[in-house]
Design goal:
This protein is an alpha/beta fold.
Length: 950
C-alpha cells in the first residue's frame, strides 16, 4: 500500500522469517522462538549466508553486556530446536561462529498490514497492558535479562525497594514479550486490595472470567487450562500469601501460563526465579568530566524529566556535578529522581541540592495520577514500613545508625538485647522485603541500607527515642572492631587488611559525628578516635587523622581530664598525622613532646619509642639534623634497655637515615645493612611508622649504595623497590619509593627515559591521591627532566613555579635536590648571577643545618656556574669548589660525588692544557665505576680514552 513502510520477509522452502512480525514460520504457522533467539536469527539472515564471528554476534545481540559463551550456545540450541528436521540450516564453524544456510528469497511486505492482527492474518490477542508513555531510560539491560529469564522460567518475581520502577519495567517487558511470542497478556493490579482473600477475584476479573459460583485459584486454573497466557501480578507484597498461592496454583496447573510478579517481598514458591531490579546507574565520586556524568542513566532520567517541565534545563560544568550529586544521594531510584526533577523545575537546581538532606519534606510532588503510595517519597517508604513486624521495624530503625556496610555481628551489637537468631531473622526479613541490601561473598558477608531508606529509618529511630543508645552501641562496636583490626595488622598483608577493614571508614565517621555532637558522648568519641588511628594511617588519610585527633584532644581539655593514657595515645596520633599531613610536618613537635612526657610518666615503652621516633623525624623536617641524631641515639639506648631485637633494628634504621643526611655514608651503610639483614623483624612494628618499614629501608639503602658507588646494586634495588611499593598499595609509601630513590637515582644515572617515566608515575599517583607535597616535588622533578632534555625555558619555568609553591616545605630534605638543580638550570638559561645566588643560599642552609649529603654536588654546581660567568669568570674559584667537593666526598665515602667532581675538575684541567693532571684526578675516581652504564662513567671513560690516544 503506498505510503506504508515495507519490511522484508525471507522465504526458503517451507520456512519464512518475518522481520516485521518478528516470527519464524513453518508452513505459515509461527514457531515458538524467544526474542533473543530471533535477534540472532535476524542477524544471521541479514548476513546472506556469511560466517558471523561468535563474539561479534554476542556484541550485536547483547550490546554492552558481559555475556558468557554458553548463553549464546543456549539460544543457538533453541533455534535448532525450532528448525526441527531442518536444524542443519544453522551451521556451526567450530571455535569461530555461525552462518545460516539456504537460498533465502526476500519479499517486501506492507509493515502496517503485517503488524495488524486481522482475522485474515492471525487471531487477535487479549491484553490490558498500558501503552508505553515514553522511553524507558536506563533499563535496556534489565529488560533484556528479564526477557531471557522469561524464556527459561515460568515464574519470575521482580523485587526491589519502593520506587525502583518494578511496575513500569514489568509492563515494558510484558509488551515486548507479547510482541515476539504471542499469547494473551494481562495485568492484575493488587495495590488497591487490602485482603489476601480478594486475590482470586482480582485475577478472575482481569481474565474476564464469569464470577458466578465459586471463585478459587483452582477454578481459575481450570478456566485457563492450556491457554497461552502471560500474567503480570503487580504489587504483591501486602497480599503476599494470596499472591503466592495464586501464582503457585497457576504455574503448577496451567502449562502455557507464565507469571511475572512485582513485589517488595519474595513469594517463596517452588520454581520461582527472583530478579532484583537494580537502581539506575549513578556517577561515581571521582567522575569529573561531563561525558562521564551524562553517560549515567540516573542523570539521564533526571535531566529528561526536568526538561519535560522546563525546556531550558541543560546543565553543564558545576551544575552537572550537582545533578550527579543529587542522583547519587537518591541512590538511582527512579521515583525519587522523578520527584527531584519536579522540584528542580520549580525551585531550581541549587535549592534542591542544598535541601536534599530534608528529602521527605522536599520530594512531595508526584504525579496526580500516581497511586497514593507513589505521590510522595515519604508515602512510598511508609507503605513498606507498615508491612513490617514489630521486630523487623525495630531492626530497621536501629540499622539506620550504620553509614555504609555492616556485618551481622555489627547489627546484633547495635540492636542490643535481641538474641543472634532473632537478629538474623530480622535482617533476612528486611532483605526479603527489599528494605536491606545483602552482599554475600566468601568470608565477607555484609549488608547496607540505601541512603534514602537510611534517612527514613533514622527519623523513625529519633522519634522512638532510641537514637542515643543505638548510636553509643554503634560507636563502641567499631572501637572494639578497630582495636581487633590493629592486632591483625601484623598478620595480614596490607591489601587484605585494607579490604577487610577499610570499609569501616564510613561507620567510624558517622560514629564520631554523633559522639562529638551536642547529644553525643565525647569520652566515647575520644576512645574511638584513638582506635581509628591505624585505619587512617593505612588509608593515608593523615589530614583526617589530624583533624579528628585535634578535636578529640580539645574535648578532653574541655572536660578538664588530667594526664591519661588516652591523651597520650591521641597526642601520638596527632604528632604522626602532622608529620605526614600536607604542609604541617613542622608543627608535630609539641604533640610528640607531650607524648614522650606522658610515656615517661606511665613508663610506657611502646609510646616512649613512638615519641622518640616521631621527634627524630620532626627534627629532620625542621632541618635540625644533629638534634635528629640525638633522638636517634636516645631511641637506640631505649631499645638496648628493652633488648627487643626489632627495636634494635628500628634504632639502626633511624641512625642510618640520620647519618645519611649528615653526610656519613660509611656509618649510614653499616646501620642500614644491619637492618637489611633482619627485615623480617620489621613486619611486627607497623604502629611505629606509617610507611612500610621494609620498603622504606630499601629506598634509603638504594640511596646510600648509589652514593657509595655501588651503582648496579642500587639500580637493581630500585627496580625491586618499585615493584614492592606498587604491590603494597599504600599511597604515601609508593610516593616515597619513587621520590626518595627511583626518580633521583635515575636522574643521577643520566637515564632520562627512566627518570621521565618514574616522574610521570609519581605525578599521576599524587594527583590521584591528593598528596600535596609529593605532588609539588613531582612537578619540580618534571621541570628538571624537561630542562635536561633541552627544553630549558619550559623546564625552568615549571621548576621555579613549583619551588615557589612549596613555600616553607622546600626546607624538607627531599627538596634539596630540586633546589640544586634549579641553580644549575639557571646557569643553562644564562641567568648566572641568579644561579649563583640560589646555590649560595642553599649552601648556607646546608651549613646551618649540618645537612651535608648533597653539599659536594652543590659545590660542583657552584664551580660550573663560575666557569659560565663571562664577566667574573674565575677558574681558580671554580677549581677551589671542585677540590673542596672532592675532599668532602672522600670524607663522606660518597664515591659518586667524587666521580662527578673529578669529571668537572678534569675537564677544567683539559681546558688549561693540563691533561696529565686531569688523568691523575679522574682515573682513580673512575676505577669504582669502570664498565658501568651510567652517564658520568661513560663520560669519564671517553675522556680517559682520549688521554690514552694522545
Amino acid at each position: 500500500m503506498p505510503g506504508h513502510d515495507q519490511r522484508p520477509v525471507y522465504k526458503f522452502g517451507v520456512w519464512e522469517i518475518d522481520l516485521a512480525r518478528r516470527e519464524m514460520r513453518l508452513n505459515g504457522i509461527p514457531t515458538d522462538l524467544g526474542s533473543r533467539a530471533f535477534e540472532i536469527l535476524e542477524t544471521l539472515i541479514q548476513s546472506a549466508g556469511e560466517l558471523i564471528d561468535k563474539y561479534d554476534l554476542m556484541n550485536r545481540v547483547w550490546p554492552g553486556a558481559a555475556v558468557e559463551e554458553n548463553t549464546l550456545q543456549a539460544q543457538i540450541s533453541a533455534i535448532r530446536k525450532a528448525l526441527g528436521p531442518d536444524r542443519g540450516l544453522l551451521k556451526t564453524s567450530a571455535g569461530r561462529g555461525y552462518r545460516l544456510l539456504g537460498d533465502w528469497v526476500i519479499q517486501q511486505e506492507d509493515f502496517a498490514a503485517a503488524s495488524m492482527p486481522t482475522a485474515e492474518r492471525a487471531p487477535s490477542h487479549v491484553s490490558n497492558l498500558a501503552a508505553a508513555s515514553g522511553a524507558l531510560i536506563g533499563r535496556q539491560a534489565a529488560e533484556g535479562q528479564l526477557l531471557e529469564l522469561l524464556s527459561t522460567y515460568r515464574m519470575v518475581t521482580m523485587t526491589g525497594p519502593g520506587g525502583i520502577g518494578k511496575t513500569v519495567l514489568a509492563q515494558a517487558v510484558a509488551r515486548n514479550l507479547l510482541a515476539t511470542v504471542g499469547g494473551d497478556g494481562l495485568l492484575v493490579e493488587l495495590a488497591s486490595l487490602s485482603d489476601p482473600a480478594l486475590v482470586p477475584f482480582a485475577v478472575a476479573s482481569a481474565l474476564s472470567l464469569k464470577q458466578g459460583g465459586e471463585i478459587s485459584f483452582e477454578s481459575i486454573a481450570r478456566e485457563i487450562g492450556a491457554r497461552r497466557l502471560l500474567l503480570v501480578l503487580d504489587n504483591c507484597e501486602h497480599l503476599i500469601e494470596g499472591a503466592a498461592r495464586s501464582a503457585d496454583t497457576l504455574v503448577r496447573s496451567c502449562p502455557n501460563t507464565t507469571i511475572l510478579a512485582t513485589s517488595r517481598e519474595v513469594l517463596r514458591i517452588d520454581g520461582e526465579y527472583v530478579y532484583r531490579v537494580p537502581p539506575l546507574d549513578v556517577p561515581g565520586r571521582g567522575e569529573d568530566g561531563d561525558h562521564d556524568v551524562l553517560g549515567r542513566s540516573a542523570v539521564q532520567l533526571l535531566i529528561a524529566r526536568t526538561k519535560a517541565l522546563n525546556a531550558d534545563f541543560s546543565p553543564r560544568g558545576e551544575d552537572l556535578q550537582l545533578v550527579a550529586a543529587i542522583s547519587r544521594q537518591l541512590d538511582g531510584i527512579p521515583l525519587a529522581i522523578e520527584f527531584a526533577a519536579a522540584r528542580i523545575a520549580t525551585l531550581g537546581l541549587q535549592q534542591v541540592a542544598a535541601r536534599l538532606h530534608d528529602r521527605f519534606s522536599l520530594l512531595t510532588r508526584g504525579l496526580r495520577t500516581a497511586v497514593p503510595r507513589h505521590q510522595t517519597l515519604l508515602a512510598t517508604l511508609d507503605w513498606s514500613y507498615e508491612l513490617l513486624s514489630e521486630t523487623e521495624a525495630r531492626a530497621l530503625r536501629h540499622l539506620a545508625v550504620f553509614n555504609g556496610d555492616f556485618s551481622l555481628d555489627a547489627a546484633a551489637a547495635v540492636m542490643g538485647n535481641l538474641d543472634a537468631v532473632t537478629v538474623a531473622d530480622s535482617l533476612a526479613g528486611l532483605v526479603v522485603k527489599s528494605l536491606l541490601a545483602a552482599d554475600f561473598q566468601a568470608g565477607n558477608d555484609h549488608y547496607r541500607l540505601l541512603d534514602t531508606t537510611r534517612a527514613y529509618a533514622l527519623e523513625k529511630l529519633r522519634r522512638a527515642g532510641e537514637h542515643w543508645e543505638a548510636a553509643r552501641r554503634h560507636a563502641e562496636y567499631f572501637r572494639e572492631a578497630l582495636i581487633q583490626a590493629d592486632a591483625e595488622s601484623n598478620s595480614l598483608p596490607r591489601a587484605n587488611w585494607q579490604s577487610r577493614h577499610g570499609r569501616h571508614l564510613g561507620n567510624v565517621r558517622a560514629a564520631l559525628e554523633w559522639a562529638f555532637s551536642a547529644d553525643g558522648d565525647s569520652e566515647v568519641g575520644a576512645a574511638l578516635t584513638a582506635a581509628a588511628v591505624p585505619l587512617w594511617v593505612h588509608l593515608s588519610l593523615f589530614g583526617e587523622c589530624r583533624e579528628r585527633t585535634e578535636l578529640a584532644l580539645a574535648r578532653l581539655n574541655d572536660g578538664a581530664m588530667g594526664p591519661t593514657r588516652l591523651r597520650m595515645q591521641l597526642s601520638a596520633a596527632l604528632g604522626w598525622s602532622l608529620t605526614y599531613s600536607q604542609g604541617r610536618a613542622r608543627d608535630a613537635g609539641p604533640a610528640l613532646a607531650i607524648t614522650l612526657e606522658l610515656a615517661e610518666r606511665f613508663d610506657d615503652r611502646d609510646y616512649r619509642l613512638r615519641a622518640l621516633w616521631g621527634l627524630c623525624i620532626d627534627q629532620f623536617n625542621n632541618g635540625e639534623f644533629l638534634k635528629a641524631l640525638e633522638f636517634a641515639q636516645r631511641f637506640s639506648k631505649a631499645a638496648e634497655v628493652s633488648a627487643d631485637p626489632t627495636d634494635l633494628r628500628l634504632a639502626d634504621r633511624l641512625l642510618a637515615v640520620s647519618l645519611h643526611f649528615l653526610g656519613d655514608q660509611h656509618g649510614a651503610r653499616r646501620h642500614i645493612d644491619q637492618v637489611d639483614a633482619s627485615l623480617d623483624l620489621l613486619v611486627e612494628k607497623p604502629k611505629l611508622f606509617p610507611l612500610d618499614l621494609r620498603i622504606s629501608t630499601h629506598y634509603f639503602r638504594a640511596r646510600i649504595l648509589w652514593l657509595q658507588g655501588l651503582a648496579d646494586e642500587a639500580l637493581r634495588l630500585v627496580e625491586h623497590n618499585i615493584e614492592e611499593g606498587r604491590a603494597n598499595g599504600h599511597a604515601l609509601t609508593f610516593c616515597s619509593v619513587l621520590g626518595q630513590a627511583a626518580c633521583p637515582i635515575a636522574l643521577m644515572a643520566g637515564d632520562l627515559d627512566a627518570a621521565e617515566r618514574y616522574g610521570e608515575v609519581l605525578f599521576e599517583h599524587t594527583e590521584r591521591h591528593a598528596i600535596r607535597l609529593w605532588r609539588i616535588w613531582a612537578g619540580c622533578f618534571k621541570g628538571i627532566v624537561m630542562a635536561k632534555r633541552g627544553d630549558i625555558d619550559a623546564g625552568l619555568a615549571l621548576l621555579r613555579s613549583e619551588v615557589d609553591r612549596a613555600g616553607d616545605a622546600r626546607l624538607l630534605p627531599r627538596f634539596l635536590l630540586p633546589l640544586g638543580e634549579l641553580a644549575a638550570c639557571l646557569g643553562e638559561a644564562n641567568e648566572i648571577e641568579k644561579g649563583l645566588a640560589a646555590v649560595d643560599e642553599t649552601l648556607e642552609r646546608c651549613e646551618a643545618r649540618h645537612e651535608q649529603w648533597y653539599v659536594p654536588e652543590l659545590l660542583r654546581i657552584r664551580g660550573e656556574l663560575m666557569l659560565k660567568d663571562k664577566r667574573h669568570q674565575s677558574a681558580s674559584s671554580a677549581e677551589q669548589c671542585f677540590s673542596e667537593a672532592l675532599k668532602l666526598a672522600k670524607q663522606q665515602g660518597a664515591l659518586f660525588w667524587e666521580l662527578r667532581n673529578a669529571l668537572s675538575l678534569a675537564r677544567l684541567r683539559v681546558e688549561q692544557g693540563r691533561k696529565t693532571d686531569a688523568n691523575q684526578i679522574l682515573a682513580p675516581a673512575y676505577g669504582a665505576f669502570e664498565g658501568l652504564e651510567i652517564a658520568d662513567a661513560r663520560e669519564a671513560k671517553a675522556l680517559l680514552e682520549g688521554f690514552d690516544a694522545d
